[in-house]
Amino acid sequence: MSTIAFIGLGNMGSPMAMNLVTADYSLRVFDLDPSTTQPFEQKGAKVADSIEDAIKGAQVVITMLPAGQHVRSVYLGDTGLLNLVNNETLLIDSSTIDPESAKVVADEASKKGIDFVDAPVSGGVAGAKAGTLTFIVGGTDMGFERAQSVLKHMGKNVFHAGQAGAGQMAKICNNMMLGILMSGTCEALNLGIENGLDPKVLSDIMLQSSGRNWALELYNPCPGVMDTAPASNQYQPGFMTKLMLKDLGLGMDAAAQSQSATPMGALARNLYALHNANGNGELDFSSMFEFYQRQSNR
Ligand code: NAD
Fold first, then answer.
1. CA-CA-CA-CA torsion sign (29, 90, 72, 268)
2. What residues are labeled active site?
3. Which atom of ligand 1 is nearest to the CA of 247?
4. Are residues 15 and 145 located together in one domain of the fold?
5. Residues 6 or more apart from 109 whose CB is under 8 A from it?
6. Beta carbons of 106 and 165 less than 8 angstroms apart
7. How confident is the model at residue 82 (pLDDT cuts 50, 70, 90)?
8. Total domain count for the chain?
9. Does 146 share its domain with 30?
C-alpha cells in the first residue's frame, strides 16, 4: 500500500485518517495541536513534527483544515506544499473553503504539473467514523480518477461536481440547505414543546411526515431524543457553530457574486451569527435549539 500524509486531525480529520490506517495505508500525520495525533502513534502511524516531515515519501497528501486561509497558508508560498512535493504526488483538500481559494491552489498546482482536487465532505463526524462520507470533488478527470481510489476508503459516495472549485461550490449549496434545515428543525421542535408536545413523539411523527429531513433523522437537536446526537452530549461537536457560520458566509459570498436571491440562507447566517456571538462558537451547530429556548423564555 502507498504512503499517505494526512494534515489536520480535528473532529473530522481524525476519524477519516483512522479509516486509512484500517485500510492498511502507511500513514504520516501532522496537526498543530499535538493532542490530536496521540491515538495515531498507538496505531503505528508516523507522527510528524512538521508538514515537511509529514510528506516524506508520501504519494498522496490529504488536508482537512478549518477554512480558506489555513488552506492557502499550507499550500502556497515558499514553504507551502506545492513547493515541497514532486509532481507525482496527488494533493486532496477535504476542508470546506471558498471556491476561489480552491481554484487558486489548483491553478498554482497545475503550473507545476501537480494534480490537486478539492474534495469537501458531507456526513459529519458519524459519517467520518463509519467511513460513509459523501465526497464532492472538483478538479480534472485525471485528478478525480486518482482521488477516487483513496477516497473510497473514507466514504460511500464520491461525486465529480466539475472542474476546480466545483466541489466547494456544491458543498456550500448543501451546507446552506443544512443551516436552514437545522434552524427550522429547532424552531418546529421548540414550538411543539412549548405547546405541550413530547419532543420524541413529535420527532417520530415528523420523521414519517413531510417535515422529515437529515437533521431530524440523524442529528436531532433536542437533548434526550437521540442518544448518539451531540444534543445528548452537552452539544460537544460534531460540527462547530463557528464552522457553520463560516459555511453560511461562503454561501452569501457566492450569492453576492452571482446576484442570486438567498433570503433563507441569509436568515440562517444571521441566526448562526447571533448564536456564535452569544458564546456558542465551539458548541455543535445543533445547539441552535438553545437559541430558540432562550428567546422564548425571555
Ligand atoms: P476542527 O477545527 O476540529 O479541525 C481542524 C484541525 O486543523 C485542528 O485540529 C487544527 O489544529 C488543524 N490545523 C489548523 N491549521 C493547521 C495547520 N496549518 N497545519 C496543521 N494542522 C492545522 O474542524 P473539523 O470539524 O475537523 O472541520 C474541518 C473542515 O471540515 C472544516 O472546513 C469544516 O467546515 C469541514 N467539515 C466539518 C464537518 C463536521 O461535522 N465537523 C463536516 C463536514 C465538513
1. negative
2. 171
3. 34
4. yes
5. 75, 82, 91, 115, 116
6. yes
7. very high
8. 2
9. yes
281 and 182, same structural domain?
yes
What distance in angstroms lies between residue 209's CA and the mean position of ligand 1's atoms?
Answer: 35
Report the percent of the chain where pLDDT is more than 90: 98
Instruction: Answer yes or no: do 23 and 158 share one domain.
Output: yes
Verify that 77 and 212 share a domain, yes or no.
Answer: no
> How many helices (H) and strands (E) are present in the chain, helices listed first?
14, 9
Residue 104 maps to which CATH number? 3.40.50.720
Task: Judge if 139 and 173 occupy the same domain.
Answer: no
DSSP output for 179-217 = HHHHHHHHHHHHHHHHTT--HHHHHHHHHTSTT--HHHH
Which residues span the domain enclosing 137? 3-163
Q: Which of 33, 65, 121, 239 to mutate to test the pocket of ligand 1 (most atoms within 8 A of CB)?
A: 65
Q: Cα(189) to centroid of ligand 1, in Å?
A: 30
Same domain, yes or no, for 145 and 123? Answer: yes
276 and 186 within one domain: yes
pLDDT (tens digit per residue) in 228-281: 999 999 999 999 999 999 999 999 999 999 999 999 999 999 999 999 999 999
Place of cell 462520507: 133
Instruction: Enter the C-alpha cell of residue 200.
Output: 420524541
In this structure, is the dihedral angle defined by the CA atoms of residues 146, 159, 107 and 5, taken in order, positive or negative? negative
Backbone angles phi, psi at 116, to 5 degrees: -130, 135
